[in-house]
Write a structure and sequence with these properties.
Strand order of the largest sheet: 16-5-18-17
Helix content: 40-55%
Number of helices: 22
Largest sheet: 4 strands, antiparallel
Structural class: alpha+beta
Length: 631
């Protein structure tokens, strides 16, 4: 099951599985652990959540975390993610929703179930549900019709209760307009900078101040745990010169794997997607279809398809003009593939309905099916064989060396026996980069667990590499004396004092605005240079200044040109005092074009909030017992 999910994460079956498990709360991948002594994970209003459900959900979360974080998924990160708690929360939320669905009398009829399955493109032939294809596809993924239909029924019931709750969300026309201006209005600022560099040379402090600052911030200067290690690295590249691959071996590999070198017919297509939720009302679907047909007519009249895609498509390829690149038939969902492969070069399709919505497709080019010749594939085959064999050789020799090390405990003797150079590091900590020695963070992680003179395990590094290591020396973490870190402490204290001097200079500038000839007079008196940011929205970093949130918030609170911000704002280079140069309201024409899209986004967001609040209320009223030992 997990292998299927990894290899077919975009397939129809996984979309159904994820939809059924997730809906609003995402359930992730797979892992392994057992709690054989337990039979239940929790009880919700008297209904049991089986331990098997908990284990499966945890495995899903763990596997997805592995896919997302890779080698960075260590014990510390696992504790932060708290996957067991997440798994239990999801199961409790799901059970509460099912209970409420029953209490409200919600159910999924056989007709609804049949309609949902029948409109799944993967089960269709020429756009029509095909029972034999349905059974074959389920068998391919080891599902019985009963199991799959139970899964779909569960998905549909969950969708019903979610739609019922989130559908209560409504937004007013004023809320839509306010949100448009909130996200699209711009301001343009003038500013003066009180730079840290201008004050650092003026900073003075006594030895007592330095000592006091050090004591106050002493933990900041803690020297972390460090180790020094000796190691033997076994890398596939070390064995490349020992391999000779003959022409006969290459030819044999080619013949045995001929299917790998068959290239199916491919087409280069662009598309425009008009999203339609699977459970949308017929009236809303008709509105989307009308819009899509209007765009289709523009394409048929010769308007640039890529520009139409950039303007109208709701898919992730919109910014690239809807370009999907070169695709084989099995890389597309049906009936998209069927429609696309029927097109002639340059032709635009009729509207095509899939689970994602309506598609408008244009065929740009076509490549016929072919088989790459041996000569074309030969170099690739050689590289593949070399990679496979050298990885095997590295793994075998590393295992043999590790076995020998276990018998002798002498890493130097093992290095000599296998003709390898014994390498050593300087002292390093968890955050020390050993990239110059071609060692990843995993090396640091393992080495820091070892005691002095302790030999570590055989460590599997990325890329088929292995390492044997021994801790030569260990320095425990400690708090240093001032003299050991004087330079760093002096630099930090200088920076802190210079920052405060810059802030005070900004305050003095602001307080003097009323006593002098306004902004221009104060700027001239202090010998400052006025800069202009240029227009920016709330969602953008402030040009020339950066992502200084308090400054940005103050900037959009200013209403009249010439109005000055009430205080100096800290940025990377010092403190800034700002003055509003102009406000630029977003164009009303663009508001009219985006009104409906904004309304949908706001209603979706408010609907999610309603759903979360509803679930929290259900939890507060429910009797929930959790097996604490799981957590």
């Amino acid at each position: 099951m997990l292998d299927l999910m990894r290899r077919h994460a975009k397939s129809w079956i996984i979309n159904i599985i994820i939809a059924a498990i997730v809906i609003v709360f995402i359930f992730w991948g797979a892992g392994t652990f057992r709690h054989q002594e337990l039979t239940k994970a929790a009880e919700v209003n008297g209904e049991t959540i089986p331990i098997a459900d908990f284990e499966e959900t945890y495995r899903q979360l763990l596997e997805m975390a592995r896919a997302q974080y890779g080698d960075y998924l260590d014990e510390e990160l696992l504790q932060t993610l708290d996957l067991k708690k997440q798994a239990l929360e999801r199961l409790i939320n799901e059970r509460l929703m099912f209970q409420q669905a029953r209490a409200m009398g919600l159910a999924v009829t056989n007709e609804e179930l049949q309609a949902r399955i029948a409109r799944t493109p993967a089960f269709q032939v020429d756009g029509v549900f095909h029972p034999e294809r349905y059974r074959n596809m389920l068998a391919r993924y080891r599902y019985t019709p009963e199991d799959y239909e139970r899964l779909v029924r569960r998905e549909l019931l969950t969708r019903k209760i979610i739609r019922l709750v989130s559908g209560l969300a409504r937004v007013s026309p004023q809320e839509v307009k306010d949100f448009y201006h909130l996200t699209n209005d711009k301001v343009n600022l003038e500013y003066v900078l009180f730079s840290l560099k201008d004050f650092q040379e003026k900073v003075k402090f006594t030895e007592e101040e330095l000592a006091e600052f050090f004591e106050k911030n002493r933990e900041k200067y803690r020297v972390p745990l460090q180790v020094k290690a000796a190691y033997l690295l076994f890398s596939p590249k070390d064995f490349e010169d020992k391999l000779k691959i003959s022409e006969d071996e290459l030819a044999e590999y080619y013949e045995l794997n001929l299917d790998s070198y068959r290239e199916p017919e491919k087409i280069k297509v662009r598309h425009i997607l008009f999203r339609i939720d699977p459970d949308v009302s017929p009236e809303e679907a008709a509105l989307v279809r009308s819009k899509a047909e209007t765009v289709r007519q523009l394409a048929l009249k010769g308007e640039d398809f890529a520009e139409l895609a950039q303007k109208y498509s709701e898919g992730p390829t919109a910014k690239n003009g809807g370009d999907l690149g070169w695709l084989a038939r099995d890389q597309m969902i049906e009936p998209f593939a069927e429609a696309a492969f029927k097109l002639e070069k340059g032709q635009v399709s009729d509207l095509v309905r899939t689970d994602f919505g309506l598609h408008l497709i244009k065929l740009e080019d076509r490549r016929p099916a072919r088989t790459r010749t041996f000569e074309e594939a030969k170099d690739e085959i050689r590289e593949k064989i070399i990679q496979e064999r050298t990885r095997e050789m590295a793994a075998d020799q590393a295992a043999e060396a590790y076995e020998q090390l276990g018998l002798t405990g002498d890493l130097k003797a093992v290095a000599e026996k296998f003709g390898r150079s014994l390498q050593t590091t300087e002292f390093f900590s968890a955050n020390t980069s050993l990239i110059d020695q071609d060692l990843p963070p995993k090396f640091n992680e393992v080495a820091l667990t070892l005691k002095s003179n302790e030999i570590g395990p055989l460590v599997d590094l990325e890329g088929g590499r292995y390492v044997l290591l021994k801790c030569l020396a260990r320095k425990d973490s400690y708090l240093p004396k001032l003299e050991e870190v004087r330079g760093a402490v002096e630099g930090d204290l200088t920076g802190e004092k210079a920052l405060e001097m810059a802030r005070q200079a900004g305050l003095n500038f602001l307080s003097g605005l009323q006593d002098q000839d306004g902004w221009e007079g104060a700027v001239a008196k202090h010998g400052l240079t006025v800069e202009t940011t240029g227009p920016f929205t709330r969602g953008e970093a402030v040009p020339k200044i950066g992502p200084v949130l308090p400054l940005k918030k103050a900037a959009f609170a200013l209403t009249d040109p010439g109005q000055v911000g009430p205080e100096p704002y800290q940025g990377e280079e010092g403190y800034y005092v700002i003055r509003l140069k102009e406000r630029q309201p977003a164009p009303e024409k663009e508001f009219e074009d985006s009104r409906e899209e904004i309304k949908k986004r706001l209603e979706a967001g408010k609907g999610q909030l309603y759903l979360q609040q509803w679930l929290e209320a259900l939890k507060a009223q429910a009797e929930i017992e959790v097996e604490e030992q799981l957590l």
